[in-house]
Amino acid sequence: MPRARKRRAPEESHDEPPPGNDSQTVNQPSVGEVPRFHPSAQQLEEFGIVLRDFYPPEMSNERCHAYTNGTLLRPIEELQQAYEETQDERRSVEPHRAVVHWFKSDLRLEDNRALQLASQVAQEHKIPLICLYILSPEDLTAHLCSPARVDFTLRNLRVLKEVLGERDIPLYMETQDKRQAIPGRIVELCQQWGANHIFANLEYEVDELRREARLIRRCARQGIKFEAVHDTCVVTPGALASQQGNQYAVYTPWYRAWCTFLRQNPENLEVIDAPASNPAGARKQLAADLFASEVPPAPSNKTLSDEEKKRFRTLYPEGEESALERLQKFLDSAGRQYADNRNYMEKQATSVLSPYLAAGVLSARTAVSRAQAANRHQLTGANAGLSTWISEVAWRDFYRHVLVHWPFICMNKCFKPEFTNVEWEYDEETFCAWSEGRTGYPLVDAAMRQLRHCAWMHNRPRMVVSSFLAKDLLIDWRRGERFFMEHLVDGDFASNHGGWGFGSSTGVDPQPYFRIFNPVLQSERFDRDGEYIRRWVPELRDVKGAAIHDPYHRGAEAIAAKQGYPRPIVDHSASRGRALARYKRALQ
Fold first, then answer.
1. Phi and psi (nearest 5°) for 279?
2. What's the order of all strands across the beta sheet hosting 98-103?
């Protein structure tokens, strides 16, 4: 981790803008043009872009640039600063009656670095390991976790409790209504259990890094050593830099550096064993309520129907074993043709491992390590399908590296802050048509309906629907980013934000803003026979041939109209010109 520089660190989880930043003016529309405006702080709250129950209003572009040029301390540097300031206190702490591992988004035993370190300390001092999980309804709301993601987490906690119990390791779980109370509660539990050492894996979002920095100091004052461990990335953020010493903001050169680093440091792909069992007699030594702890219920605003629970359990079975079985099956079969088939939506050509990676049921290290082994122990070359899949898993690392170095993307801003100035639309009826799959563009509608039914979407249509929302409809991409998080079972901030940055041309992708996906051409190319559309848009199942891609302009108007399928809500060609003009004005 880089040495922290003495710079100013903001005090809040998100940054307050300078005075006057909230007062943005509404533009008067030209004749024949749809009304548009720059949203005020009140409107950003109204449309759900800024959650004012938790965060300040939208920050300014100037403060974004202050993070970029190093004037403001990044959260990762705040964390390092906390370590440096408490190193003497932490060094003097000796293990006491127990060691604690705090589970967060790492719900697995195998290849869990913080868990293994906690186990090692416990084994060396012949004291029990206690595992902890705290459910925070406020965190789930603030971070826009979908009910499907919450259900998946709770199902995996049940499996985790069982497999830990077989090793005589308790998993204590509870709900904390107030997210700000979590650090204090952790200290209280450690004191109650006689634990002077607590381990946890790092999460790289702004709130979590700053919480951990505060927790390091708080624990040190109480004689507790808190260790936050790099685990979620194959290559630790900050480890890769260009020859000029800069962090990469473009994937291709970053990926070359990532592969080179792993070849030179193969230990980064070593998969760590699951923790050892607790010492004999641990169950008698520890309080009975630790082993009797139950998985918390889902908060009322994050619950699923019985039918949804059953469906998602079938689609995404819980547990490490399920994840590893799915991984191995993919590597043995579809993975080898992944390069050729990955974009075709009607095929089951992708691994669908993203829910397991997002919840930490499967580590990215394990995924890449096994894929490399299947690929003749190579990251690139050998089998094109497996090499391509490894490069796709690497995107997950890349987006976390970007998040750590440019933390303002966690604050309702895009990587290119100047595109915040695009004159976005905020028409509710149009947004609802997009979110419900009623745009009149069959591929877009099929994808959005798949999302609602499966809590998941194939990557190719993710790109298409994000481009369609931001550029065809010119609706603020942050509304789409939020909608995805609130519905995806694999909702993951860094990857989701990166995907929306790509689709809206506001992110790290170097392709200029004038790349605008044509949903009809995308449909013709990647759903050639229309099977994906027919599956998710039943109104069009009787449409034959190429008309499925654009029924109202290819002779299938009668069938589409009879079945109640809507006409296109915008003309793509006209919308493209409008988007180009808006983006260009934003840059000026």
1. -60, 155
2. 171-175, 129-135, 98-103, 195-201, 225-229
Long-range interactions of 494-497: CB distance < 8 A, separation 24+: 494/204, 494/205, 494/396, 494/399, 494/400, 494/402, 494/403, 495/354, 495/358, 495/395, 495/396, 495/399, 497/399, 497/403, 497/409, 497/410
435 vs 444: CA distance, rounded Å? 10
Q: How high is the mean pLDDT of the chain? A: 91
Residue 99 assigned as binding residue:
no
Q: Is 555 annotated as a binding residue?
A: no
Q: Which tens digits make up the pLDDT trace of 224-282?
A: 999 999 999 999 999 999 988 999 999 999 999 999 999 999 999 999 999 999 998 89
Alpha helices, H only, 296-437: 306-315, 320-332, 338-341, 354-359, 364-374, 384-405, 428-435
Whether residue 554 is annotated as binding a ligand: the answer is: no
Distance CA 383, CA 374 (A): 9
**Distance separating alpha carbons of residues 545 and 555, to the nearest angstrom:** 10
41-70+412-587 folds as DNA Cyclobutane Dipyrimidine Photolyase, subunit A; domain 3 (1.10.579)
Phi, psi (degrees; rounded to nearest 5) at 342: -60, -25
**Residue 484, φ and ψ in degrees, nearest 5:** -60, -50
Query: Which pTM was predicted?
Result: 0.92
Alpha-carbon distances, residue 345 vs 35, 384, 459, 528 (angstroms): 36, 19, 9, 9
d(CA 513, CA 152): 36
Neighbours of 258 (CB within 10 A): 25
Is position 88 annotated in a ligand binding site?
Answer: no
| CATH 3.60.40.10 applies to domain 76-232 | no
Other C-beta atoms closer than 10 Å to the C-beta of 396 total 21
Helix (H) or strand (E) holding 199: strand 195-201
Please, how many CA atoms are within 13 Å of residue 163, restricted to the half-sphere of its CB? 17
Is 66 annotated as ligand-binding? no
Angle between helices 364-374 and 384-405 (to 10 degrees): 150
- 331-384 confidence digits (pLDDT tens): 999 999 999 999 999 988 999 999 999 999 999 999 999 999 999 999 999 999
In this prediction, residue 55 has a pLDDT band, given cuts at 50, 70 and 90, of confident
233-271+306-406 folds as: 1.25.40
In the 3-class helix/strand/coil scheme, how is 203-266 assigned residue by residue? CCCHHHHHHHHHHHHHHHHCCCEEEEECCCCCCCCCCCCCCCCCCCCCHHHHHHHHHHHHHHCH
- Of the segments 7-21, 30-44, 275-289, which one has the largest average pLDDT value? 275-289
526 is in an annotated binding site: no
Q: Binding site annotation covers 77?
A: no
Residue 29 half-sphere exposure toward CB, CA atoms < 13 A: 9
Residue 483 annotated as part of some ligand binding site: no
Residues labelled catalytic: 392, 395, 424, 459, 477, 500
3-state secondary structure of 173: strand
Instruction: From residue 384, give the alpha-carbon distance in Å to each of 234, 340, 508.
Output: 21, 9, 26
Domain boundaries in the chain?
41-70+412-587, 76-232, 233-271+306-406
